[in-house]
Amino acid sequence: MTKNNTYYAPSGGMPPQTQLLSDRAIFTEAYAIIPKRVMTDIVTSLLPFWEGMRMWVIARPLSGFAETFSQYIVEVSPGGGSEKPELDNAAEAVLFIVEGEMDVTIEGEKHPMTEGGYAFLPPGCRWTIRNNGDTPVKFHWIRKAYQFVEGIEAPEAFVTNENNIAPIMMPDLDVWSTTRFVNGTDMRHDMHVTIVTFQPGGVIPFDETHVMEHGLYVLEGKAVYHLNGQWVEVEAGDFMWLRAFCPQSCYAGGPGQFRYLLYKDVNRQMPFIRP
Ligand SMILES: NC(=O)N[C@H](N)C(=O)O
Asked: Which of 54, 89, 224, 273 is the most buried (most CB within 10 A)?
């Protein structure tokens, strides 16, 4: 398959003192926008048991913010990585590489990954990570507390690359496609992390208003997104959090394709809030 996709990756640094402060960050009850310019050196975090890493936390479970997932953009220097990356046995994860290369070892088997590389790591899976290259690697790490269901096994780990998977077109529309990494009817999976692609001028033609929570990281291009009645311009490198039921639609602005990495929680009963 031809590789014509690009992936935005932040590179940190600090804006000069001469730059204007105004930017596009928005935080509301229904959605948040973290624009690309925010990913500077001074807003990074570190984690225990990792070497040569820093990360931008772009979503975390918090009252009034993400409820079902956390999302990090992780940067690992050459030689860096972790033998103990995940400390929570119930956490499942997707890793998606936006720059560089790394090796992920799952249950003792080493998987080299490059840009567009995608790994699914089920809860309790034993995995490690190492940048054996000579340039930094940058990847998204999306984590969710897996919702076990009696009688259904947790899914197995897999590693692939988006360029090995044919995107699925929306019915009757050749301007909007989704690259799916798991079968939508596979009830073992309680989260989907997909890549949504719009050709220039493509739209979500109505305000989707649904129970699934979203994280959207714009990998490529630009668009205007309609979020809870407000129009916001977004471009490659921006992150959007959309609360469950946040009305959402968009126009892809061109001149190239508009693409984003999309998180959503799926396939589970709606828990009751009991008195
Ligand atoms: N904002 C979105 O891209 N939403 C998707 N159509 C979705 O919910 O799958």
From this structure: 54
